[in-house]
């Protein structure tokens, strides 16, 4: 197949392809191996779905309804381009007995519109506004997979992970914020086998690009915009300043994170203590770093005596903290792209990193939401988080979750100098480390 993102080769018999994929799906759910005939994008998605604990007989859960859903949609950035989506796709969806769907960056459906009879059929599998259709919740599907891999995706019939979705075919493309590049959500067309045509994939891709262009026109960069510092999940932070994106060195990243949290400023001695664990670093070294940072930022943003920022700099760290403090746990998790500057050893950054991650995981464990716990557990920073896996096993005791928990507990119980070895299923023995 020349394009792995297109579901069917020209001339392929859809009915035969459905049968072949159904057998492949049965093989995977039974023994965990994916036959080579399955497209790589689908095979990788099936594996992610299984690791997240999704079962082939599961269903989507509805998280937002009524006024809560209405308020969330009204504030979402994609609300501004819904008229465009309806203009470009509404007639196509209604005439073709399809559905137009729009989800947020977490795969939560915000709008589902189109042919009335098709909507009634979709209602029976909870393909409705407010339902979570992320990969980690319902497995392989076009809107959820599109935001997971950040690519336009087409999912044909029995390529879907959950069986009740397998009568459907869909194509979706992610939509990005034109200023920051972050994913806002995805636009999707869902219906019958006819949507497996390459044109449907090109169609949603073009609609997504049109939406991004519209968003850029609706919100052009303004000189007075607050600078944005992105430091979560990356060793080198990125600063959006005056319409430019500046990639910072690790040391400059640490300095800006600390100064953004101290609008009153920090003295040279305070910065030295916050940045350097060893006492041999001299004030001259710090002044040289600050001089280089001042040249990078341009005039007016970094002042001295004490060292301080002359304008408010918003950071993704403070956004997550603010959401966590107000009890908006889902929004806090959505904003958490990973540990703060994970490679940094600056004492103050290490303290902040541990406090933020500790606060989030404590809130997740206390709240007990299976989807939020699964998202954390399957992220790189949560793969060995024993307490989170225990909390997940309590609310979603699937075989894969129990097996992973057993492995972690075996590692914890292993004597010094020994490592656990899985002998069968979730059973472990011990072997000496080499």
From TrEMBL:
Residues 243-309 form the OmpR/PhoB-type domain. Pfam families: GAF. InterPro entries: GAF (IPR003018), GAF-like_dom_sf (IPR029016), OmpR/PhoB-type_DNA-bd (IPR001867). It comes from the Bacteria. The keyword Transferase does not apply. Keywords: DNA-binding. The keyword DNA-binding applies. This is GAF domain-containing protein. It comes from Streptomyces nogalater.
């Amino acid at each position: 197949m020349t394009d792995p993102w297109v579901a069917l080769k020209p001339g392929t018999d859809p009915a035969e392809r459905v049968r072949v994929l159904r057998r492949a799906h049965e093989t995977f759910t039974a023994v965990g191996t994916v036959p080579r005939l399955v497209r790589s994008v689908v095979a990788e998605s099936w594996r992610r779905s299984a690791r997240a604990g999704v079962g082939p007989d599961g269903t989507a859960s509805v998280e937002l309804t009524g006024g809560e859903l209405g308020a969330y949609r009204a504030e979402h950035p994609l609300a501004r381009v819904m008229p465009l989506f309806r203009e470009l796709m509404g007639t196509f969806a209604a005439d073709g007995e399809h559905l137009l769907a729009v989800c947020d960056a977490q795969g939560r459906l915000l709008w589902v519109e189109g042919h009335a009879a098709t909507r009634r059929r979709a209602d029976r599998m909870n393909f409705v506004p407010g339902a979570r259709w992320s990969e980690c919740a319902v497995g392989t599907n076009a809107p959820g997979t599109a935001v997971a891999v950040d690519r336009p995706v087409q999912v044909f019939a029995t390529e879907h992970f959950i069986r009740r979705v397998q009568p459907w075919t869909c194509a979706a493309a992610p939509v990005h914020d034109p200023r920051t590049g972050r994913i806002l959500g995805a636009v999707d067309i869902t219906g019958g086998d006819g949507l497996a045509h390459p044109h449907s994939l090109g169609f949603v891709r073009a609609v997504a690009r049109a939406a991004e262009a519209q968003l850029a026109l609706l919100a052009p960069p303004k000189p007075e915009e607050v600078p944005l510092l992105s430091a979560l999940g990356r060793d080198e932070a990125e600063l959006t300043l005056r319409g430019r994106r500046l990639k910072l060195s690790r040391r400059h990243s640490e300095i800006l994170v600390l100064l953004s949290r101290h609008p009153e400023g920090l003295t040279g001695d305070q910065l030295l203590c916050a940045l350097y664990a060893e006492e041999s670093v001299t004030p001259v070294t710090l002044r040289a770093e600050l001089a280089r940072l001042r040249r990078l930022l341009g005039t007016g943003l970094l002042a001295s005596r004490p060292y301080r920022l002359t304008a408010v700099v918003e950071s993704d760290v403070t956004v997550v903290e603010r959401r966590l403090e107000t009890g908006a746990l889902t929004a806090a998790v959505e904003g958490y792209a990973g540990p703060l500057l994970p490679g940094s050893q600056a004492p103050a950054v290490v303290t902040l990193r541990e406090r933020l991650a500790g606060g989030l995981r404590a809130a997740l464990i206390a709240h007990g939401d299976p989807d939020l716990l699964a998202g954390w557990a399957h992220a790189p920073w949560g793969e060995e988080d024993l307490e989170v896996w225990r909390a997940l096993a309590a609310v979603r005791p699937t075989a894969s979750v129990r097996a992973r928990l057993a492995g972690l507990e075996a590692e914890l119980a292993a004597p010094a100098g020994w490592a656990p070895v899985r002998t069968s299923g979730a059973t472990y023995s011990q072997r000496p480390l080499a």
